[in-house]
Amino acid sequence: MFNYKVYNLSWVYKFTINIKDVKNLPSFTANESGWQGECKLLLNYNFETTTIENTDIIHIYKDTSLLYTWIVQDVFRKITNNSEEVELPLLWLWTLPTYLLYKDTWSYVFSKNQDPSVIIKNIIDYINTTYTAWWLNYDVWSIETYWTVVDIDFDHDTCLDAIKKCIATTDFKLFIDKDWKVYFKSKPVSATHILIVWKDVEQINLEEDSEKLVNRLILKRKSWTTIYEDTTSQTNYWLKELYLEKTDLADSVSANEFWNNYISTYKNPINKTSIRINNNFTLENIKVSDTIQVKNFNYIINNLQIVKYSYTIDKMKLELEVFDSFGKELIS
User: Distance between CA 114 and CA 256 in Å, rounded?
Assistant: First the structure.
């Protein structure tokens, strides 16, 4: 069912791991801010085996479909009285740009006054040019224009932090998929996936959380402090204030964009919705930023966006955007 192909850092194919040597099944998480996370691979290898090295890249396929791509971060060798094994903690390749500082020509301190999508493309191109392997890719469909020019300061930011600064001024989601294609898009207008209760869906949990509710934001940007507030939320939930410093926001347009997106998320109680599905649905087709609809169910769950998932071979837990509900387990 699974196969594991090993490459070196220059993308030269080395070998395919014998499935009989793999002692565990792949499992990992993915979310909108961290993308696909760590996976551990346990191999029935002799203690002294050196065929897999640090910085090797491992492609994992389920049947013929690419499931994930990891880079070997460390190699742990273990021997006990009656067995030997090699453990590989695998990290997604996107960890590499956390080592790279974003630079504009000659300087690490500069400003960009552009559409966030243009800045993100520039960062990706810079990563690819610096590492010379063109790790990441995008096209006109995967990165959408935001249609607002923002002014953002960068000061020795990693490429990852620079991208997060851009995302913070928009209501778009950014996700980098298993094939390293970059998606920066608005929410789909209709559900990407349709799930059926009692067939695909095993459990739905809804939890209302007002801990992070904010209806007055005192926002300090580069050269000004502005107070933003939502009076309707204050009437409904009392006044809840927060002070934030976002000195990378260099103008009022950028600050206003940040506020509009912040308040839309936090002016009401956050309703956490999670759904556990089984492999009656093709789990490998799901990615962060997709949206779902649940049918055969009295509650309306329609076109809610996935912000995180946890994958195992036969189950997947989906965590969704805000949902208008009370805290309750609806189905189990």
Answer: 15
* Cβ atoms within 10 Å of 2's Cβ, excluding its own: 14
Where residue 135 falls (left for φ over 0; alpha for ψ -120 to 50; beta otherwise) is: alpha
Closest C-alpha to 248, from 258, 238, 260, 263? 258
How many Å apart are CA 212 and CA 107, to the nearest integer? 37
Among 197, 188, 173, residue whose Cα is nearest residue 275? 197
Tens digits of residue pLDDT in 75-111: 889 888 778 888 888 876 666 678 899 999 889 999 9
174-187 mean pLDDT: 89
Task: Give the integer Cα–Cα distance in Å for 2 and 18.
Answer: 10
190-245 pLDDT, tens digit per residue, is 999 999 999 999 999 988 778 889 999 999 999 899 999 999 999 999 999 999 99
Q: Provide the pLDDT for residue 119.
A: 97
Rounded CA-CA distance 240/317 in Å is 32
How far the first Cα of the chain sits from its last, in Å, is 29
The model's pTM is 0.83
Residues 291, 193: contact at Cβ < 8 Å? yes
Per DSSP, the three-state class of 272 is strand
DSSP 98-152: GGSB--BTTBSEEEEEE-HHHHHHHHHHHHHHHHSS---B--TTTB------EEE
Q: Tell me the torsion sign for CA atoms 182, 185, 189, 191.
A: positive
**Based on the number of CB atoms within 10 Å of its own CB, is 320 exposed (0-12), middle (13-18) or buried (19 or more)?**
buried
pLDDT at 175: 87
Answer positive or negative: Cα dihedral of 168, 171, 176, 182.
negative
Distance from C-alpha of 166 to C-alpha of 29, rounded to nearest angstrom:
23
How many Cβ atoms from other residues are within 10 Å of residue 246's Cβ? 20
Alpha-carbon distance of 221 to 152, in angstroms, equals 10
Give the residues across from 175 on adjacent strands.
183
